[in-house]
Amino acid sequence: MKGWLVVNGFVDSAKFCELYSFLSCAAEKRGIALEVRKSDSFSAPLGEKIADVDRPDFVLFWDKDIRLAARMEKEGLRLFNSASAIEICDSKALTAEALTGHVPTPRTLIAPKTFEGVGYNRLKFLENAARVLGLPIIIKEVYGSFGAQVYLAESLADAEKTVSALGHKEFVMQEFIEESRGRDVRINVVGGEVVSAMERYNCNDFRSNITNGGKMKPAALTPEMEDAAIKACELIGLDFAGVDVLFGKDGPIVCEVNSNPHFKSSLECTGVDMSEKIMDHILERLK
Fold first, then answer.
1. Up-side HSE of residue 165: CA atoms within 13 Å toward CB?
2. pLDDT digits (tens, 9 = 90+) for 229-243
3. What is the residue range of 165's domain?
4. Are residues 66 and 191 in the same domain?
5. What is the pLDDT of residues 89-103, one digit of tens each?
C-alpha cells in the first residue's frame, strides 16, 4: 500500500519534522510506503490532475491547505482527515458553529466583519459582548495555534486594546470558564474512540498549552468527557483529532478541536503513540 503524507512546504521546524517521522515509522511498521510530499510541490494547473500518475492509495493530509485538499478529493483520493473537517477545525468560528447546540461549548460571539485598511474602527460591539458574555472575556483570533492568538481581557478597556491591535483579523469572543483557568484536558480520538488523554495545567497563565509553559499529567476521564470528545469529532467528520475539553461547573465543555494534533506531549505523558493508532485506522478504513 502506498500513501502520501502531505505537509506544509513552508513550515520546516524540528517540532513538525519529528511528527512526520513518527507517522512515517508507524506506516513502515505496517508495510505502508508513506511518501512525504510538501504542499508547494504540487503544481498542476486548475483543470489538470494532481495525481495523474503514481496515484497513492490514500493521503494523510497533515496541513491546512484547504484548496489543495479539496482538489485531491475531487480527483477521488481518500484523505485522512477530509478537506471539510480540516477547514472547520482550522477556523475557531466554524468550529463553534459546528458544535454549538450539540455538545457543551463556551458561549460564543463571532466578531463582525471588517476589511484590511479599515480595521475595527468602531468598538461599540464589544460593550454588547461584555454584557452578554460577562467579564473577563476570551478573545481568539479565528486562525491560530498553540494558544498564541488567544487573549484574556479582564475589562472592557482590555478588550478594546486587544481588538484595536488585531487590525482586520477575524476573531471570536467567548465566555471565560473560570473553573478551568490554566487547565484543560487534551483528549486524542481516533476512529471514534478515545486513545489517550492528558491533563494540562499552568499556574502562571490562563492558557494550559505546553508551548506556553504548561505541565502535563495523565488524565482520568469521566464518561461525559469521553462522550463530548467523540461527539465533537463525529459532528465535524474527523477520522482523528485532539479535542481540548475544559472543566465547567456543570460538566465538561469542548473548547477546541485540532485536526492535525501535535501528539508528542501526549506520547510522553501517556505512552500512547497516536501515529500508530492513526495508521491502524487508515488500514481498517481501506479494507
1. 13
2. 999 999 999 999 999
3. 108-176
4. no
5. 999 999 999 999 999
